[in-house]
Predict the structure.
Amino acid sequence: MPKFIVLPCTGGATDAPVFATALAVARQFASHLAFLHVRPDARQQFAALAATEIGIVSGVGDTMERMELDADRREHAAAAQWRELCQREAIAVRDSPPFDGVSAEWVAEVGTPADWVAEHGRAADLIVAGRAHEGGGTAMDVLEAALMNTRRPVMIAPPAVPASVGRIVTIAWKNTREAAGAVSAALPFIAQAERVIILTIDEDDETNDRSPERLQRALRWHNPHTLLHRLVRDHGSAEVLLQAAMQAGSDLLVMGAYSHTRLREAMFGGFTRHVLEHAELPVLMAH
């Protein structure tokens, strides 16, 4: 059960769906939310920039000042968003138990976001992260650190604020240990869902894989409203699966994360990348 949830807080517009997704989960399980803001190290940033930009050393003072001002702006914005959320949603601000309800704390670090998400994420029950960087692009560095460097489940928020999380749970099933790990991480959501749908894609008309039926039989002990749908791959498998999940009204997609050796290929060119870029619902992944 996710009682301690870590979520990155950047100070940008992309935080809103992350906050809403994490709060929806916290209300289901009376969880504690640790809002993690990582302030960039200006000296470290400048050193990296100077290594690629010829002539930048002459403007070191102005460049460092701009970096610090930008870091100040983001830190103040992130803290203001956090305070406003806690006040608006009546979230108790505290840093120690016991407390019977949703609570929150502010955690500040200096350095690289991906590194600190991994550090704090290892102690969490769940990490809730956004899939987009401010200004565009998928936040693969943070997602990779959360998935591969913590061994904790990661819930990836959709681009827009979700109306609910976990009312109808869809499982993207493949007979692998990664998918099995994701299902295990999702059991608290599966047990509380109105309906659970197992989706599996048959690569051809004849399949001897009986693992979907075994999974359905086992999950019915957690939730009797567990259904199995076999899909036929007639074009991209990720597209087929997302379409089926959306048609079912799902508000949580559960899927496995690939092993480290295949992560780059999977996240930057394959099934997972397509899901991260096109899913309109929260996605729970585990490795």
